[in-house]
Amino acid sequence: LISKLPNVGTTIFTTMSQLAAETGALNLSQGFPDFDGPDALREAVARHVMEGHNQYAPMTGLPALREQVALKVSSLYGLQVSAEAEVTITPGATQAIFCAIHAVIRPGDEVIVFDPCYDSYEPAVELAGGVCVHQALSLPDFAIDWQMLADAITPRTRMIVLNTPHNPSGALIEMADLDRLAVLIRDRDIYLLSDEVYEHLVFDGREHASVLRHDELYQRAFVISSFGKTYHVTGWKTGYVVAPAALSSELRKVHQYVSFTSVTPLQWALADFMAAHPEHLAELPAFYQAKRDLFCDLLANSRFRFTRAAGTYFQLTDYSAIRPDLDDVAMAKWLTREHGVASIPISVFYQTPPAESRLVRFCFAKREETLRQAAERLCAI
Ligand code: PMP
Ligand code: GLN
């Protein structure tokens, strides 16, 4: 067998979560909460299952849920989108990413991604016959190097992948960045994939620079989000894509043969909950900022060095004052085995990792007692 994905192995998320389970370590590696989504949301699923909402939902998603997404987009980002033509519900953001890439990428096309880069874009591009062109974000702020980006664009560039708030760094793009990007790709045949799964996890009063706020960029964009992150239910694997009608139509051609539709009772429950609890979204930034601050305040007494994450539920930390001799993969394993806290090394998200990178990522979507216990162990090193 000649593998179609020779460079793909087990993901770092599986590796580290497994090691955490084997060793009994606190799992701050793979990003998921150790608490549950809202009671009313979970009760709504049970109700819809019992009420008989168990057969296929429409291919593009339950109309009531698409309507809620359109309402949210209008109230948060000031963009009027058609729930019918521009919103598609998908089984997770991961499936949405795969479908968006396959909707437009042809053999030989180039897709620009920024390193450190979330792991699900490149395999999808490769399966479509495309090639990822990796651009390193500049350190220490994980910002786009505009000159490098301009130089990387070729006549073969067909897509640019943005991810803000950014996993794994927690950095944010600003509206001014979107303006620069719009100028750079104006009059070129380039699509955008904007991975905004952490759109509500933005701290210190800053604003999420959604592509949905930018009329010009939206015309060529697939904007992707995940109910899993927003409602603390990552295992539900339910997400959505907002894209102009022509792009949504192409995306749906792929989606209808990858999965056809998404799990019905989950969509009913999400639609009910979004309608009844609009305050949930407004409360999220403060909810996660308090967790970030608790974790960071406690970690201030450790030898880890960090700048507080501007967004996401991930905190990057520099461990060079502790074990400069270990690369980050070895460090993450050592921390798990010897100190009982699992994290994610950053080098795996690079095509060419920066020399001497000494950064690991901790997920702070955890209960207060988990964060206190983890910090206690990390401060003792
Ligand atoms: N994009 C990013 C940046 C993520 O961190 C995640 C989380 N796993 C996803 C996409 C996938 O989201 P989902 O679980 O809804 O597929
Ligand atoms: N997005 C999650 C993270 O960054 C991982 C999801 C997965 O395991 N694929 O930790």
UniProtKB/TrEMBL annotation:
Top-level lineage group: Bacteria
Family matches, as Pfam families: Aminotran_1_2
Keyword field: Aminotransferase, Pyridoxal phosphate, Transferase
Aminotransferase class I/classII large domain location: 26-378
Any one cellular-component term (Gene Ontology): cytoplasm
Cofactors required: pyridoxal 5'-phosphate
Segments passing through the bilayer: none
Annotated GO MF terms: kynurenine-oxoglutarate transaminase activity; pyridoxal phosphate binding
InterPro entries in UniProt: Aminotransferase_I/II_large, Kynurenine-oxoglutarate_AT, PyrdxlP-dep_Trfase, PyrdxlP-dep_Trfase_major, PyrdxlP-dep_Trfase_small
CDD domains referenced in this protein's UniProt entry, alphabetically: AAT_like (cd00609)
Family to which the UniProt record says this protein belongs: Belongs to the class-I pyridoxal-phosphate-dependent aminotransferase family.
Identification of the protein by name: Aminotransferase
Organism per entry: Stutzerimonas zhaodongensis
